[in-house]
Design a protein that fits this description.
35% strand, alpha+beta, 5-stranded antiparallel β-sheet, 4 helices, 160 residues
């Protein structure tokens, strides 16, 4: 596994600063309400799209990983993560873990917003003794062409 971590580091370092964009599709009120219910919310303003004060749960947009439903098996790693979610690790036999997430909300997400995520790997750090592990830092912005940035996210991934 040490060789796989070394290769992941080499690949990730080559990706630092590269901007990737992905359309996440249109925010649908019914799906946003279902997310809020699954998150344990009970307020009608979060779970009832027919409520006059309905708003999209703030964490909904940052939970989106893909725009179109129906990913095929080839898009997933054996551990269930998307193959391309952690830069530099596609096809490698490495263990992946979430290493923390900071979210900054800029504006409310609204039903009908067409969301695009912009992702950039900003740092690759080798940690620990021996072969150690990698700590990858990814910056993401979620936004719309019409309204600009809605949320900024810093994610960290541990690669072992």
């Amino acid at each position: 596994m040490a060789a796989a971590v070394d290769l992941a580091e080499q690949r990730a370092r080559a990706l630092i600063g590269r901007v990737e964009r992905r359309s996440l599709g249109v925010v649908r009120a019914a799906e946003a309400a279902e997310f809020a219910r699954a998150a344990g919310e009970t307020s009608p303003r979060l779970i009832d799209p027919d409520d006059a004060g309905f708003v999209v749960h703030p964490m909904y947009v940052v939970s989106l990983l893909r725009g179109a439903p129906g990913a095929d098996d080839e898009e997933f790693r054996p551990d269930g993560m998307y193959r391309d979610e952690v830069p530099g690790t596609d096809g490698l036999d490495v263990a992946l873990m979430a290493g923390g997430q900071d979210v900054r909300w800029i504006a409310d997400v609204q039903p009908g917003d067409r969301i695009e995520v912009r992702r950039t790997l900003t740092a690759v750090e080798r940690k620990g003794r021996g072969t150690g592990f990698l700590l990858l830092t990814v910056e993401k912005t979620y936004g719309t062409a019409e309204r600009g940035v809605l949320a900024e996210v810093t994610e960290r991934f541990i690669v072992r």
